[in-house]
Structures are given as C-alpha cells and as structure tokens.
Amino acid sequence: MIILSEEAIHVIRTEGERTYPNECCGFLIGRSDGAGGRTVNEARPARNSREREERYHRFVIEAEEFMQAEAYARKLGLEVLGFYHSHPDHPAEPSGYDRENALPFYSYVIVSVEGGAAASMTSWELSADRGEFANERIGAIPAVVSDINVEEDT
Question: Among residues 97, 28, 100, which one has the least CA distance to residue 57?
Fold first, then answer.
C-alpha cells in the first residue's frame, strides 16, 4: 500500500492539469516502513525533458534532476519512493513504455487527465522480474496543520 498526503495528491492532479495535453512527471518523496508500505509526504514536480513532439504520451526525467531530488529527500531524512506522471486522455494504467522504463523497487503513480481535468489516480509496482505491474492500493492522509495555538481554560 502507498499512502499519499493530501498535498501530494493535490500537486499530482494540479500538475497533470497544468501540463495537459502533455504528460507531467515528478518524484514521490517520503518514508518506507520496511514492510512494503510507503508514505508519501511530498510530490515534487520534475521537468519532462522528452522531445516536444513526444511529451503528449511520454516523459523522461534527466539523471541530474533525479540526483537533486535524492539529495533533497536525504536532507529531509526522507527518500525517493517512486515517481508520478499523467496519462492525457488515456486510462491511469501503465503502458508498455512505462513497464520497459520502470524499476521494480519504486512506486509509480499515474493520474488520468481527461480533456484537461484530472480524473482517476492509480499506483503500480513493477515485479522483480520486470514482467508486469501490480496495482498498489492508495490511501490518503490529511494535510498537516501547523502553528495551532491551543488555549487552556484557567
């Protein structure tokens, strides 16, 4: 199971809509519980560096940007747990291209964007033999509220 913060869900959906009709992409940053569970605190947008004419159905994240995201996560005591991207006017299911370019130990969140509006969102994990994706259940955690002042009765 992968748990996404409300903020991460908002970023993924908003980025999908903002980049439509092209694919958006980015990093899932958070913590793994060591037993297969993952909690994503932040969805960090990345630049889709795929050639302009291919961006509507493909994405590429440059290695340098990946290294920067890993350094950013480490600085926060977190890790890159996976990636997200959008499927403009297509289902939120991994394509053959997605499978060929994925790695088994990451989560892959896909948001379908239909006519410019974010629709369904799914998460997938690639099998160790890289043969197929397994659907990963998504849970959500509420946004963190900070700076709350509690007054005590006297």
Answer: 97
